[in-house]
Amino acid sequence: MKPQVTRRTIIGQAGLAGLALAPLANAVEAEHRDDKAPLNIVVAGGHPGDPEAGCGGAIARYTSAGHNATCLYLTRGQAGIHGKSPREAGDIRTAEAESACKILKARAVFATQMDGATEVTPARYAELTKLLAPLKPDVVFTQWPIDTHLDHRACAALTLGAWSALGKSFSLYFYEVDLGSDTQCYRPTAFVDVTAFESLKRQACMAHASQNPAGFYLNDHVPMLRFRGMELGCKFAEAFIHHDQSPPGRLPGA
Ligand SMILES: [Zn+2]
After folding, report:
1. What is the value of pTM for the model shown?
2. How wide is the angle at C-alpha 241 spanned by C-alphas 240 and 247, nearest 5°?
3. Cβ neighbours of residue 10 closer than 8 Å, sequence gap 6 or more
4. What are residue 192's DSSP bridge partners?
5. CA 61 / ligand 1 centre spacing (Å)
6. How many folded domains does the chain comprise?
7. What is the mean predicted confidence (pLDDT) over 145-156?
8. What is the CATH number of the domain that holds 187?
9. Is there a domain that residue 252 lies in?
10. Does residue 197 belong to any structural domain of this protein?
């Protein structure tokens, strides 16, 4: 059957070509305002703090509009606190993630992988698909496959696998963290104005007290928010790459 050309299709194609980025985001938002049903949003990350750093503003914007958001962490950050055992660090970072999710009005869900040693195997693909399916996601954000951290790359691969296993039914976007040192070769196709939600994002990132949040948030992510804001034409923005075979038009703005 010949695909029907709709405004949604055209918006998706514009995203593909990377054209007219600010008008694209506005068009997506305008379209989405017609849809009143709450969406189920999932943000997958390798570690506690990744969804918050990459998508905290968008998450807060979604939940403030009445949508449901879940942060799905592959690990509990067990390797992330010097001098603590994996169990101690995992407990501390689980609590930090839960606090951050509370600030963003999101739910925290954890897979069972080990920080620094994530696996990309058939069993791990099955695990992530099993965690994702009952959340009935409309939109999933995941890490970019060309990140320095191997757990981020695992997150991207496993999410792609789950998206495929679930019939490519949800919108799929990639997000950036610590651009340049971690996320690389990243050319956004969609932007979200998070100016009004930066303080919530900041609080959620600061909830990760064990992770030097003044370093990763203030030094790395605030300049990113400002730069993406300059690209979009606002004070603070987050920037995403849309998977062009997934349904577009599901960014916050309702
Ligand atoms: Zn990470």
Report:
1. 0.86
2. 105
3. none
4. 238
5. 22
6. 1
7. 98
8. 3.40.50.10320
9. no
10. yes
Both tokens of residue 155? 């997150």
Interval between CA 45 and ligand 1 midpoint (Å): 7
Q: How far is the CA of 63 from the centre of ligand 1 (A)?
A: 23
Between the CA of 235 and the centroid of ligand 1 the distance, in Å, is: 25
Task: Tell how far the Cα of 152 is from the centroid of ligand 1, in angstroms.
Answer: 6
pLDDT band per the 50, 70, 90 thresholds, residue 55: very high
Ligand 1 centroid vs 50 CA: distance in angstroms?
5
Distance (Å, whole) CA 98 – CA 102: 6
Contact 163, 172 (CB under 8 A): yes
Distance, CA 196 to ligand 1 centroid (Å)? Answer: 25
Q: Is the dihedral of CA 199, 204, 207, 213 positive or negative?
A: negative
Domain that holds residue 92: 7-242
Q: What is the pLDDT of residue 200?
A: 98
Give the pLDDT confidence of 164-203 residue by residue, as tens digits. 999 999 999 999 999 999 999 999 999 999 999 999 999 9
Does some domain include residue 225?
yes
Domain contains 2: no
68-118 pLDDT, tens digit per residue, is 999 999 999 999 999 999 999 999 999 999 999 999 999 999 999 999 999
Output the CA 25–ligand 1 centroid distance in Å: 27
CA 182 / ligand 1 centre spacing (Å): 9
